[in-house]
Fold these 2 entries.
Entry 1:
Amino acid sequence: MCGIIGISSDKDISKELYYGLYSLQHRGQESCGIAVLNEDNNSINYHRGMGLVSDVLRKEELDNLNGNIGIGHVRYSTAGGSHVSNCQPLAGVCRRRKLSIAHNGNLINHNYLRQALEEEGFMFQTSIDSEVILYILSRYYKGNIIDSVKITMDYIKGAYSLVILSEEGLVAVRDPYGFRPLVLGKKGNEYIVSSESSSIDILGGEVIRDIEPGEIVLINNGEVKSYNYKDNYKEKQKTCIFEHVYFARNDAIIDGVNAYEFRVRSGQILAKEDDIDADIVIPVPDSGIPGALGYNKESNIPLKEGLVKNRYVGRTFIKPTQSEREIGVKLKLNPLTSVVKGKSIVLIDDSIVRGTTSKILIDSLRKAGAKEVHLRITSPPVKYSCYFGIDTPRRSQLIASKNSVEDIRKEIGADSLKFLSTDALMKAANCKNIFCMACFDGKYPIEPMVEED
Ligand code: AMP
């Protein structure tokens, strides 16, 4: 998963790109970068590096990145390793035309495309699928960026939201299924495209609308032109439901669904379907907070802060070894003994993937004196891998892929365990039939081209 942003303005935008990327930091903490087209359109300047936005993009770097059009990227690797060569935006020159791209999503046919390009002599400098997009784009870029984007879309399959920097302007593209979000906003004479509406709010702009699935938008000199890839894809839309379950910020509105309200409703529905008689509701911070508020609202069981979060610990989810993931969770979340001692607790989290977090939390709550721990999850069991950009592990590592709810309960040590059903999840999403729920139901909108274990 990654975050992307693009800005087209009549003034220098490097600082805005920086703040915009900052607002997308939750979408990727491994690396980041900014590319700008300089004022005389003569070159693309960029700076990329491993680390957080505030570490990589320092004042000295930003001072050298002047331009009115630019793009930015924060990375959370899902295809290709965590290495400096895989930082984005990617940039290059072909037949004297400059291009730079930033990509969010995963292509499912990139191995095949890469092999074909390598056969033709293309030398790859990264191990990410996004480089395939840049090469196909530049190969067919003969003066009309929209034509070359359309040809590229004929080749690439899977999830892609893109921002492209070209001499013709800023281009934003959302794949025909709209797997990953992409939002268009305006601030005076300036246009902003971002993975999440929150960045547009934070930069002081107004959200205009979501970029539609299969839509290509070209922004130049204060003018926005919209093109359809082929048909109108709105009917086929399959936006990732996990954006709402976990990934997006609470203040994001994606395809008309408010992430915060979605999460609160999920908690309310869970409580409505529940009959547990507990003393307190405790959220797993931060992702479980809106769900716990909803659960508390519906059940009237008092909501308490029972876990203290260390805000300086990064992601524990993708640490390479299980023991590192375990110490990571312990460092990140610690129980408040005075709150939990002797209490029967409803613990709310947004998801269970491997089961690491819940197992450790339940154990530490018991050690802190909790009488009972009833775990409630505001999404269904994650049974299938995601090939479209969410970093879920191989199927064999997903605890729900081979265990019943009762087996999971025993494994993580909860007194009881309940998940939201897929139907209830749809209800929480206002019954909008626009979501990919393949991680929960195995119904992949495009058949993945991989071997499963
Ligand atoms: P696990 O510990 O493997 O069961 O993962 C579940 C926990 O990680 C929950 O607390 C989620 O909030 C969080 N989580 C779920 N999906 C992801 C993801 N793709 N990246 C990072 N954290 C996640």
Entry 2:
Amino acid sequence: MKDTNKHQGLRNQLVKQLEDKGITDKNVLAAIGKIPRHLFLDSSFENFAYQDKAFPIEAGQTISQPYTVAFQTQLLEVEKDHKILEIGTGSGYQTAVLCLMGAKVYSVERQNKLFKVTSNLLPKLHIRPKFLSFGDGYKGLPDYAPFDSIIVTAGAPFIPQPLMAQLKVGGRLVIPVGEKEQIMTLLIRKNETQFEKHEFGDFRFVPLLENKN
Ligand code: SAH
């Protein structure tokens, strides 16, 4: 659990790269500049943790590429105290970014191993999401709805209706949609029945899977 000046130096370089790639949200960049990404990865990846790349984590899943995390988070337009639902806790890195931006984070993970590892890791790093849930993200978290925004960090074959229903009017849902490749999609809820849709470039995620239970 060591974070050194060397790690900080590498983080500063990563932030610079993300700025060069077009990330402008200062709060996103500040969060990425503070979070010890190497502690979210297996120690064998420690030397690569600040490269702008995805890496394997437990249960055949991946920690998203920093650029992808930054891009999705920027689309959310996070404000302090926003109540945010994340589907796909994974390593908890994206969760940490949202927490450092002052959001109240509710996150769902369907892989029990990852749920346990990440539930254990985050408090050690003094990162405190409001609620980590083990379950099926296709259903969202109806007991805690509505949310200011929702972020899905796995590739969804379609946009799950419960997630749309759990968004506040004016709220934003950021979700990569597609089977093999995904189109980053932003839905903004205009009123009870209408959503405005925006599409951004292609990304690649591990799939959003139906629950095993
Ligand atoms: N935000 C994570 C990304 C992890 S990859 C990170 O940066 O580390 C996507 C995650 O979504 C995986 O952990 C996978 O197990 C999870 N996932 C896939 N289908 C899901 C579902 N239906 N409900 C909840 N989580 C799901």
